Amino acid sequence: MFIVAAVALLAAMVLVLARLYAGPTLYDRVLAVNSFGTITVLFIGVLSFLAGRADFLDIALLYALINFVGTIAILKFFRYRAIGDVSASREMHR
Amino acid sequence: MIETGINIALFSMLVVTALVAVRLRHLFGVVMLAGAFSLLSALLLVTLDAADVAFTEAAVGAGISTVLMLGTLALTSRREKIPSHRPWLPLVVVLVTGAAIIYGTLDMPDFGAPDSPAQTGVAAEYIARSPHEIGIPNIVTAVLASYRGYDTLGEVGVVFTAGVGVLLLLGGLRARRRRGRPDGPDGEEG
User: What percent of chain B has pLDDT over 90?
Assistant: First the structure.
């Protein structure tokens, strides 16, 4: 049961990675990395049930948080072309 | 058996990701690939039961360093320059070094071998004593937070000092910029 889920998730990883390698536009790549992070979270969950260790689920939660913050940072970079002090970089580009 | 299959699949994805990242000239794509690479290696560390190292890899590799590389890209070019010559010598050096390192691992004990030095030292003591002395299910956490508590406290002090230093440097820059702003009509450059 969990083995089937793990194999399916591995197949999903391969598909998402193919999009990440090929991805013609930047948004394809951003979306691919974000989906890859989500699949990672799910895969750790499946691994924790496969190994019978519930403490892996905490790691999966942490990954979900990091994935969210990373995507926000990337999209902020798209919007403002800067990461840190947005107002300062706006000032420079004016 | 299942674990071997998962490891082989993850490792082959890791290798393909690294090769594509080397070939790609578009640096934004390379940053995205590096993020996927860290997530894959963190997954491998989870399958090796190294939960704390996987935590660090995910937080530093996939989180912070992606943000730092994007910040660097904002300051520099977004395309990699095509090298004018083929650097054969560095490739040879890297291959020889890699071969030497792999040769060095040949006489190491097998992964998880019961007679390896890592298992015969103090590890047996920790495994026997930590459940009733500390009461934490994860032995690595028990060692880091309790048996080596002073060491970890020192590390936290180092990280705290580094953080305060960075905050002071960045805060000083921002305050100077703000002070400079009201003079000119349109703000100052830089």
Answer: 20
Q: Does B18 touch chain A (CB under 8 A)?
A: no
Instruction: Supply A3's token pair.
Output: 């083995």
Contacts of A75 in chain B (CB under 8 A): none
Interchain pair A56, B66: CB under 8 A: no
Quick check: A81 contacting B, CB < 8 Å?
Answer: yes
**Annotated domain spans of chain B:** 1-80
The chain B residue lying nearest A56, using CA atoms, is B51
CA distance B42 to B50: 9
ipTM field? 0.81
- At A29-87, the pLDDT tens digits run 888 988 998 998 999 888 888 877 777 787 788 888 888 887 887 787 777 766 555 55
Q: Which long-range contacts (CB under 8 A, 24 or more apart) does B76-81 make?
A: B77/B27, B78/B26, B78/B27, B78/B28, B79/B25, B79/B26, B79/B27, B80/B25, B80/B26, B80/B27, B80/B30
Angle between helices A56-80 and B65-75 (to 10 degrees): 10
Whether B62 and chain A come into contact, CB under 8 Å, resolves to yes
Closest in B35, B63, B71 to A83, CB measured: B71
Res. B93 pLDDT band, cuts 50 70 90: very high
Question: Residues in chain B, how many?
Answer: 190
The structure's pTM equals: 0.74
Determine the straight-line distance between the first and last CA of chain A, rounded to whole angstroms. Answer: 58
Q: What is the DSSP string of B33-58?
A: HHHHHHHHHHHHHHHTT-HHHHHHII
pLDDT in tens, B111-136: 777 778 777 777 788 888 888 887 87
